[in-house]
Specification:
GO molecular function: ATP binding; ATP hydrolysis activity
Order of helices and strands: HEHEHHEHHEHEHHHHHEHHEEHHH
Keywords: ATP-binding, DNA replication, Nucleotide-binding
InterPro entries: AAA+_ATPase, AAA_22, Cdc6_C, Cdc6_lid, ORC1/CDC6, Orc1/Cdc6_arc, P-loop_NTPase, WH-like_DNA-bd_sf
Function: Involved in regulation of DNA replication.
Number of helices: 17
Largest sheet: 5 strands, parallel
Strand order of the largest sheet: 2-3-4-1-5
CATH class of the largest domain: Alpha Beta
Strand content: 5-15%
Organism: Methanomicrobium antiquum
Helix content: 40-55%
Amino acid sequence: MFKNREVLRHSYRPLILPHRRPQIDSIASILAPAIRNETPSNILIYGKTGTGKTASVKYVGAELENACHEMGKACNVIHLNCELIDTQYRVLAQIANELDDIESKSSDRPRSSIPMTGWPTDQVYSELKSMVEAIGGVNVIVLDEIDKLVKKSGDETLYNLTRFNSELKNAKISMIGISNDLRFTNFLDPRVLSSLSEEELVFPPYNAPQLCDILKQRADVAFADGILDDGVIPLCAALAAQEHGDARRALDLLRISGELAEREDAPRVTEKHVKNAQQKIETDSLIVCVSSLPTQSKAVLYSMLILSEMNKQVFTTGEVAQVYRDVAQVLDLDVLTHRRITDLISELTMLGVINSRVVSRGRYGRTKEMWFGTGTAGIKKTLTQDERFDEERLNQIDTARFRSIFR
């Protein structure tokens, strides 16, 4: 079935990025001064998930390093994922360790790494500044998911990095921030924003024909010849185009479709496998979402499951609140107010765990109706993995009483 499954992974970087040439050229032209040992402008790059931001920056970064190396110029591109490294200390330490690793490989000297915890932040900053000055050249720091860093620890990290150049003599620092959130700049001090966003680029979502081209490029390498039905790639592209033009979603659909066909020992990948893959992805993402919910949200959700198991396809906020009070007491939780329960229900709707609508009851006012969009077995299994939701406790809930109330 597969020739090279890894080609369909997000981490794979193809030699050619379809439909991103204008963005790649823009990034390259902004970073070009590094070849002349001049400081490139800082860049802020925006765009929804799966629009090729990270892949384009990594592509240009690798080309820049190669070009500078051929010309005998010092240039390093350091890529950090701020979803994993989201404090000032860890960002500075990671940059220092990446540079130290690069330098030790080129000079065959032993590494002198900075620990990821334990030093005063000022000491890490000073050590990093000394290291950058000793290495010299141009150092491009890419902060992927920069909004996560700003929301977690403020803009002090960015402020310190943007003033680096004023303290350096033999080296230069340039920054690239990548974000899925167009509004995160609201959290930035105006001085930091003006320094960081000297250039701004927006990556538009892919449309269905563009996603088709991306998938065809990968499928030619990933799958054996004649394995895909003609409608598979267009269907994957169309479904992903509905999800804000997310290329990652399209690749996941295609890869999982192939894996499902492989498990069935099917001769070809068909549109049926794509539809099954879509359902699997939605179920898997739902389980991850449910497992990370706060305990009170899980209690509200479990209350909905009780109503669903009573064959109530649609239930109201009042019904959920009534069951929730018993669930909260059994789980030794503080019982929330009706308003707070309504807020948690809205959050569950926003996350896609449940569906809801507001309906008018005439002179009785308006109420919210809710229902589950997909099967609840995976949700219940995920909830019961939480130690608070152990079977002994849950058996204390008087579901028979609710059956008599809501029949």
